[in-house]
TrEMBL record:
GO MF term (any one): metal ion binding
Main location per the UniProt record: membrane
Spans through the membrane: 46-67, 79-102, 114-134, 141-162, 174-195, 207-231, 243-263
The protein, known as: COX15/CtaA family protein
Keyword terms: Cell membrane, Disulfide bond, Heme biosynthesis, Iron, Membrane, Metal-binding, Oxidoreductase, Transmembrane, Transmembrane helix
Subcellular location: Membrane
Native source organism of the sequence: Halorubrum ruber
Alphabetized InterPro entries for the sequence: COX15/CtaA_fam, COX15/CtaA_HemeA_synthase
GO BP field: heme A biosynthetic process
Record's keyword annotation contains Metal-binding: yes
Domain of life of the organism encoding this protein: Archaea
């Protein structure tokens, strides 16, 4: 739900629908529910409804970690932090769509950047809560996470504004963030599982290899976040910025692929297996 919400938000902004609803919030053009046809008012309203439902689900997940059974402290902390910064995201979103309304000049680069960064933080925290809440990791999960990371980043390159392959229209922008965030989630999982492997050795994976994988994934994540930020109109997108964007995308792909390559062969030893030795 949060992944789709992120993409909906990008699509809403890219189509200019964020300025619809006569810059009103929570009403939309003096209505609670606008005309249910594809128009800027409906796009903005639908984004708000999806955000509201997702917000309640985020609160529910946090409550589940506290009142459920078997969840570790780190899982509770990640889910609770996601809820703690949710009001900030809602506030920034409300400011963004009230140009010359509640907050004059709300539709600015700074509010767009804050909206994107806080949304990414919430998405990352929810990812960690899901990963940690799933129990102990293993080599197979670590390899799968690295594979998802590589696939997501490569797919995002197809829609990225850094690569002149497709017109960076609103649908392409939405697709870029869906694929890019999938890659980001894969990297988050890779770092989480690799960190766990350095502390509690996975069978078939030594601590040194796990540390290398973690470093490569963390570097890839930093570069990918850079491309996600440059995917919005936060800077005057000149040829220089396009070059920087392309370089960051290349680094993200290379480091993620390096992490996946480092894990090659670890599948040959299943969890719990012990190498047979002898004279």
């Amino acid at each position: 739900m949060t992944l789709v919400l992120f993409s909906l938000g990008v699509y809403t902004a890219a189509t200019g629908s964020g300025l619809a609803c006569q810059a009103q919030w929570p009403l939309c053009s003096d209505q609670l529910i606008p005309a249910l046809t594809i128009n800027p008012d409906f796009i903005e309203w639908f984004h708000r409804v999806w955000a509201m439902v997702t917000g309640f689900l985020i609160i529910g997940v946090a409550g589940w970690t506290w009142f459920g059974s078997g969840f570790e402290r780190r899982t509770k902390l990640a889910a609770t932090l996601a809820v703690a910064i949710l009001p900030l995201q809602i506030t920034v979103g409300a400011i963004t769509v009230t140009l010359s309304g509640l907050v004059p000049g709300g539709y600015t680069v700074s509010t767009h950047a804050a909206h994107l960064i806080v949304a990414l933080a919430i998405f990352t925290l929810l990812g960690l809560a899901t990963i940690w809440g799933g129990g102990r990791g293993n080599v197979r999960l670590l390899r799968a996470a690295a594979g998802v990371a590589v696939a997501g980043i490569v797919a995002s390159a197809v829609f990225s504004r850094a690569v002149p392959f497709l017109t960076y229209a609103p649908p392409a922008q939405a697709a870029f963030y869906i694929t890019g965030l999938a890659g980001h989630l894969g990297l988050v999982a890779t770092v989480a599982y690799a960190t766990e492997a350095t502390r509690n050795r996975y069978d078939g994976l030594d601590a040194g290899t796990a540390a290398t994988v973690r470093a490569l994934a963390a570097g890839s994540m930093a570069a990918l976040v850079g491309t996600l930020l440059l995917g919005r109109d936060l800077v005057l997108y000149t040829a220089t910025w396009q070059g920087i964007n392309l370089a960051a995308l290349g680094v993200a792909v290379a480091l993620a692929a390096g992490a996946a390559w480092t894990l090659r062969g670890t599948e040959s030893m299943r969890d719990g297996s012990v190498p047979i030795g002898g004279d």
